[in-house]
Queue: 3 jobs
Job 1
Amino acid sequence: MLIGIVMGSTLSIFVALALTAIVMLFLPEHADRFAEERGPLLRAIALAFVLTSLAATSFIGEIRNRAWRAAAHLALLTALAFAGWLYWPR
């Protein structure tokens, strides 16, 4: 099921970004080098969390055959399009 693949991918991206932030916390001697990276990293973590939440909701709706699953799929598709637009090279 494609939604399961999307859910797993977004979860792995979220975990990788969160672990990157944790590693940055354990390197205070390099805090000045990481200062300009902190904002974009936190925004990426927030976006990955939203995508993971929407993918999980969409997955649950599909598995349980809920009436609202089409709305969840549309929300996920919209969020993925936004993420693609946000990170597409200019």
Note: Residues 31-63 form the longest helix (33 residues).
Job 2
Amino acid sequence: MLVKQFKSGGIISINNVPHIIEKVDKHTPSARGAATIYKVRCRNLINQTKTDLTGKGEDNYQEPDFRQREVQYLYKEGDNYVFMDIEDFEQFPIDKNIVGDDKYYLVEDKEGIFALILEDRVVGLRLPDVVEQKLAECDPAIKGQSATNRGKSAKTETGLVVQVPEYMEQGDVIRIDTETGRFLGRVGTSF
């Protein structure tokens, strides 16, 4: 796979070890004829360490041989997150170190998640692009505020802190981009 084709959530092999792409920054130089540089943040799927790459768009990396299985998140038990395979209904735990910051996007019974399996071992998760969560903590709305005014911090039911418009209230359901952790919009109002 060429560096210019990298997307967050993609999997590449670095020194024969699978890494998940977490962030891609494209830097276009102002000089004519200069090559575009890509800065890539990856996470090693075996030991969870971060790796930073810098490369040109035509640099090539191999994709590791791994499988993906659709899973449903069920619940947290101790240091493990328990998932169920959608096809055979087998339940299995994934250690909190493998789940990492993805925990902020996991709501019980959440579907549309894929377990990344390498050599019969789950090494990571691929989340849906957008998730919906309820605001658990939020300062009260201020009368007369509109969507174009300043924002405020709010905490979702999973503990994720996001910036939301001032009119949002506790109990509102919002859409969140799982790549950036940014607020995308409101789904509903308080229950």
Note: The longest strand covers residues 17-27.
Job 3
Amino acid sequence: MDKIFIRELALRCIIGIYPEERREKQDILVNVEMHADLRKAGRSDDLADTVDYKAIKKAILKLVEESGFQLIEALAENIADIALADEKVKQVVVTIDKPGALRFAKSSAVEITRP
């Protein structure tokens, strides 16, 4: 299966379970790997035959800007749902990094795979 990536989408949102995490927006990095058959698009050179990753990115931005999730797992699940709403996407892998969440660590992260 072919893949389309959205890599290191840098966003800010309210995320976390502790009161200090819910006061101000925090940085997150979102990576989305979408599995789809891209042969038709490769032959036709037509956007209608592929995954419109710009539209998916816009939907992710809207979700994150309006979100108030406590867990990055819940945010990842909602992002996966956005990607899978495109019928061409057969599987999605979503990784969310939360830089600075753990002292002495570059980030904490979660990765989910959904068919």
Note: The domain at 2-114 is CATH 3.30.1130.10 (GTP Cyclohydrolase I, domain 2).
